[in-house]
Amino acid sequence: MATLKLYNPILSEATKECYWFCDEAGTSFKDVDEFINGIPAGDDNIELLLHCDGGEVSEGWAIVDKLRSTGKKITATIEGNCASMATVVLLAASERRAYPHASLLIHKPYYPEYTLADAYRADDLESLAASLRDDEQKMLDFYVERTGADRAELEALMNEDKFIGMERAKELGFIQTIIPAASASAGGPNSAKSAAWKQQNSITNNQNSMATKTTKSEDKSVLRKALAALAVALGLEAPQPVNYELNTESGDTITIDKPDGEDPAVGDSASPDGEHKMPDGKTIVIEDGKITEIRDAEDEGDGGGDGGDGSGNDPDSDALAAANARIAELETELADARKNAKTTDEKRILNLVAIAGGEAWLVKAKSDYKPAARQTTTTAAGEGKKNAAKPQSRVQQRIAELEAAHQKTE
């Protein structure tokens, strides 16, 4: 596993040169690029250690994009402070944790006082303000996408511009785990018992944490669907989910960690691991929580061979008969299951709806067309009301045609 330590301010190369004269260090996009290029082939894991108060916005975004473009599994640990642009870099990782006494701060971007040593007109200041607001919304969008937290709550926290503890950071989704202290007691006769208890308790806590995480994930999914339906009913915009599910050809589901409306792509966080064949024929390969490959549909050969040993002998007829009987049972069960199973086309259509935005998108896409009122015809004069043709709907006409065809076959 390659380890990237972000312990200095995030700076461009030009700013780093200025800092160098003051005997100050910094981390730039170039530093991260060189680090990634130096990772040995076959090493698909990056450990990101953070104790950083932030830095330049554009340089930070470049670092985030570079890290995510590697397709490697990124695990981040907050070892001290994680503030400002460093929080954006933190969220480049799919697995995020922190030590108990670490701190996190998010705030609105700003221009430092020493960067405004120039003459500015009103138009210049308005342009600077617009640029800051754009950066603010961009950061908010990324926070919401990666944490799943409420946008208004995150915006309020940015306005406060203050550090929060790791319990609060975990509630908001910036981290998933708080690393417990591993140091033992000072010594004494109970040290061994204490260490054994801590180990067992740690295992239990990890199991409970995994169970809780699954439950919270399911709760969020149900809540998200309920909010989407409510928003549509009220005529409001539905909240954008941070993941969606796709049906596989076998009837299982995979979760793609990105907003609805975006197709799955290599590098996206997803689960569970494995090779998943989709209804459209493509195969999505997930390893270590990341999509590593998306293969197009391929024609499958017959595999060759005649399935026999060429001798014509049956060494175990009883076992073969039992196997054939079991195959017959399974074929019967499969036939019953297929009656209730979705067809490949149905699964493919459901996947397209999920990618497009799910139930909320489908409701918005319904047609409001109303056909014009039908004009009934009357019989010719002299026929009278007795012989008047009673108007029929298209369904009734179709039923009559089918009945007539059935009588002909009899």
Q: Can you offer a commentary on this structure?
A:
This protein has 410 residues and is of the alpha/beta class. Among the domains are: 2-178, 2-enoyl-CoA Hydratase, Chain A, domain 1 (Alpha-Beta Complex), CATH 3.90.226; 221-299 and 344-362, no CATH class. The protein is 45% helix and 14% strand. It is built from 12 helices and 12 strands. It has helices at 13-21, 29-37, 57-69, 85-90, 122-147, 151-160, 166-172, 191-233, 317-340, 344-356, 358-364, 394-409; strands spanning 2-6, 45-52, 73-83, 95-98, 103-105, 177-178, 244-247, 253-256, 270-271, 274-277, 283-287, 290-295. Strands 1, 2, 3, 4, 5 and 6 form a 6-stranded parallel β-sheet that branches. It is elongated. The N and C termini lie far apart (77 Å). The model is unreliable at 201-222, 299-312 and 376-388 (pLDDT under 50). It comes from Alistipes shahii. Belongs to the peptidase S14 family. Residues 273-295 have a biased composition (Basic and acidic residues). One of its GO terms (biological process) is protein quality control for misfolded or incompletely synthesized proteins. One of its GO terms (cellular component) is endopeptidase Clp complex.
